[in-house]
Automatic annotation (TrEMBL):
Pfam assignment, any one: I-set
Domain of life assignment: Eukaryota
Protein name: Ig-like domain-containing protein
GO cellular component terms, A-Z: plasma membrane
Length: 614
């Protein structure tokens, strides 16, 4: 009604201004009214003709020449012929989605220079030959998704030099020719989904120099190739979602990209593709949710210096190593809900003060002092959409699991500093080729983490080479070699503190002329001394070798005798005096952590250690 009134008023005004124009306008209106196809709704003002769901078998007659918007969606149209739209040169938007179109003749949209938006979605098109889109130089949006297209041919989009958005998803696409995307110079957004592609069409994609966002969903691609996205220099948003068989992600897969958001979700990746991401220094959002990723190691993401938001929900995370987020000083939002984490220590963060949202619900969290840090910033830290809960502990009263914050405020959280059972100085001696066992079993609450420092200053936190680190803290070296000798330091640590023990290992050299010579090292820093002969030295008859070896043996022998004298001397001086006993009193750190934890540490009052010095 209002529409009609305003039209009449406009008409009146115009006709007052110029009678001739008025007559012309009347003619047009009459023409439109008469030209509106049967069963369709026409609006002269917006110059649109809407024939949605009218069971039309063909393009209806009587569409006004000046039509701008034509909606023919959900009809029964079978084919598009070259002349079908030639009569409507002012068409800007054409919707042919949801018909039965099998074939589109080349030149079907010829002369439609003003066309901005074309949808051929949800038809039965099997092939779009080259020339179908000829002349649509002003087209910006094209949707050919949900058809039966098997192949995209070379140069088929050649004329679409203003196209910004292309949807080709939901087809039976098996292959995209290398030059298929040629000419799409300003394409900004491309969606490729639900196709039968078996690899990323990297040759075709390399023509899309203007591409800003690429969405690839529901693809059955098992492995990304190296340089899969080369020449996409402007790409900022990459989405890889629902690739259930993807398990290979080479380090150079994302080479050449400078992304700001990246999403790799619902794949079969069991490890974080850290090396492939490390060059993305402008990345701010990373979504790695719903991948079977099990662990995040130390400093794994350190290249992502601008990362603000990290989603790792629904993964299989059972551990996040200390300093895992080393380098991520802007991390604001961390979403690790629905994982298998028993805790999250503050040491994983580079700057915990930057954290605003921590979504950690649906994890089997153990509410012990490792989570105490959450209480220190109660006002600035949000738990997102769901409050995390503590998993039930053995011996604790049964009942519904309680919220982490309540638990931390209650008096049930205890911390006990690690205590190593073994004697403070151990001497271990083994034959070369045998296995050496260095024990270090520690108790504490939470369970301490055991690591070893080797004589060569290597830090062993897990098995490496000949060294196996058992869960009970024992370090096994098999087979032992002479150069393994030296002082090993075991450190057991948890949030409450740490304890350490030194183990001196001597490996008897059986292969040399001086077998059964045992050498104990007494100083870890000097343990790299090369006091032993090469382990594979042979019994050659070379006189020179024997002479040199004998000389070296004498020197070593003299050295050992001197050392023994020195020891005797030191011991005799110490005799008679009171032995140096050192008492160390330790107060667990957690006491100072939260103000309201009084009385929570009864089990861990000041602890006393007795160290004997020779
Ligand atoms: C694109 O459309 C504008 C009007 O919107 C028109 O002037 C121009 O000629 C068209 N471009 C081409 C190449 O036809
Ligand atoms: C594409 O995959 C679907 C489902 O896996 C299958 O039904 C269809 O036949 C495949 N198409 C081609 C062309 O291989
Ligand atoms: C995912 O990987 C596991 C082995 O790691 C394999 O058993 C499974 O079949 C894979 N899933 C798919 C969909 O390929
Ligand atoms: C990467 O992208 C950012 C914007 O997201 C831009 O500021 C920066 O210059 C780009 N770096 C390179 C090397 O192109
Ligand atoms: C991350 O990806 C998952 C799976 O595709 C999606 O459900 C979730 O909304 C994404 N999160 C964000 C913040 O985009
Ligand atoms: C965390 O991820 C889950 C699953 O994708 C999502 O439902 C939730 O909204 C996310 N939380 C935040 C704070 O983004
Ligand atoms: C540890 O030292 C105690 C005496 O202080 C001794 O009885 C015990 O046998 C030693 N244990 C080991 C494994 O050396
Ligand atoms: C720890 O486990 C290893 C392997 O199971 C075993 O050889 C070693 O004796 C154990 N250590 C202790 C102290 O029981
Ligand atoms: C080293 O000592 C063991 C006994 O401790 C002995 O059985 C062996 O024969 C000795 N080896 C050599 C090369 O003397
Ligand atoms: C190693 O031993 C040498 C003497 O053999 C001594 O001068 C040096 O200070 C020792 N180094 C350390 C770090 O103790
Ligand atoms: C041990 O030997 C290596 C070469 O085999 C040498 O570089 C190193 O300096 C030696 N270390 C000591 C403490 O003599
Ligand atoms: C002996 O050991 C050295 C290094 O320890 C090695 O380079 C050399 O190949 C070995 N020789 C034999 C015969 O095994």
């Amino acid at each position: 009604m209002v529409d009609c009134m305003s039209r009449v008023m406009l008409h009146t005004a115009l006709s007052c201004w110029h009678p001739l124009l008025g007559v012309a306008l009347v003619a047009v209106f009459v023409g439109s009214a008469m030209g509106c196809p049967a069963r369709c709704d026409c609006s002269a003002q917006s110059r649109s003709v809407l024939c949605h769901r009218k069971r039309l078998p063909t393009i209806p007659d009587g569409i006004p020449i000046e039509t701008r918007v034509l909606d023919l969606s959900k009809n029964r149209i079978h084919a598009i012929n070259p002349d079908d739209f030639a009569a409507y040169p002012q068409l800007e938007e054409l919707d042919l989605s949801g018909n039965n179109i099998i074939y589109v003749e080349p030149g079907a949209f010829n002369m439609l220079f003003n066309m901005h938006s074309l949808s051929l979605k949800s038809n039965r098109i099997k092939l779009l030959s080259q020339g179908v889109f000829t002349g649509m130089t002003n087209l910006t949006v094209l949707d050919i998704s949900d058809n039966k297209i098997v192949i995209l041919l070379d140069y088929m989009f050649q004329d679409l030099r203003n196209l910004r958005s292309l949807e080709v998803g939901d087809n039976d696409l098996v292959y995209i020719s290398h030059w298929a995307f040629s000419g799409l110079l300003v394409l900004e957004s491309l969606t490729l989904e639900r196709c039968n592609l078996t690899e990323v069409p990297k040759e075709a994609l390399s023509h899309l120099h203007g591409l800003i966002s690429l969405h690839m969903r529901h693809l059955n691609i098992g492995a990304l190739k190296e340089n899969s996205f080369r020449k996409l220099h402007r790409l900022q948003h990459l989405e890889i979602d629902q690739w259930p068989s993807l398990d290979t992600f080479p380090a150079s897969a994302l080479h050449g990209l400078n992304l700001s958001t990246l999403s790799i979700t619902n794949t079969n990746l069991t490890a974080l593709p850290a090396r492939a991401l490390s060059h993305l220094t402008h990345l701010t959002h990373l979504n790695l949710s719903f991948n079977p990723i099990r662990h995040i190691s130390e400093a794994m993401l350190q290249g992502l210096v601008r990362l603000e938001v990290l989603h790792l929900a629904g993964a299989h995370l059972s551990g996040i190593a200390p300093h895992a987020f080393h380098g991520l000083s802007h991390l604001r939002v961390l979403n690790i809900s629905h994982n298998r984490l028993d805790t999250l220590e503050i040491s994983v963060f580079q700057s915990p003060e930057a954290l605003r949202v921590l979504q950690i619900d649906h994890n089997p969290l153990v509410c012990d002092c490792r989570l105490m840090w959450l209480l220190q910033k109660p006002h600035t830290l949000s738990f997102g959409e769901a409050q995390p809960e503590c998993s039930p502990v053995e011996g604790a009263p049964r009942g519904r699991p309680y919220k982490v914050k309540e638990a931390l405020h209650s008096n049930h959280v205890t911390c006990i500093k690690p205590k190593i059972d073994e004697n403070k100085t151990q001497m271990v001696s083994v034959d070369e080729g045998q296995r050496a066992l260095l024990h270090c079993s520690a108790r504490g609450k939470p369970n301490p983490v055991v690591s070893w420092l080797t004589p060569r200053r290597q830090h062993l936190t897990r098995s490496r080479g000949r060294a196996t680190l058992h869960d009970n803290g024992t370090l096994e070296i098999r087979p032992a070699e002479t150069q393994d000798g030296g002082v090993y330091v075991c450190v057991a640590s948890n949030t409450a503190g740490n304890d350490s023990v030194r183990v001196s290992l001597a490996v008897k050299n059986l292969g040399s002329l001086y077998a059964n010579r045992t050498q104990f090292y007494t100083d870890a820093a000097n343990a790299t001394a090369n006091g032993t002969l090469p382990s594979n030295m042979t019994f050659g008859l070379d006189l020179k070798t024997i002479l040199v070896s004998t000389a070296m043996g004498c020197f070593t022998f003299l050295g050992v005798v001197l050392f023994c004298f020195l020891l005797l001397f030191v011991w005799s001086r110490g005799k008679g005096k009171h032995k140096n006993n050192i008492d160390i009193e330790y107060v667990p750190r957690s006491k100072s952590n939260g103000g309201s934890t009084d009385g929570t540490d009864q089990g861990a009052g000041p602890r006393r250690f007795n160290m004997k010095m020779i």
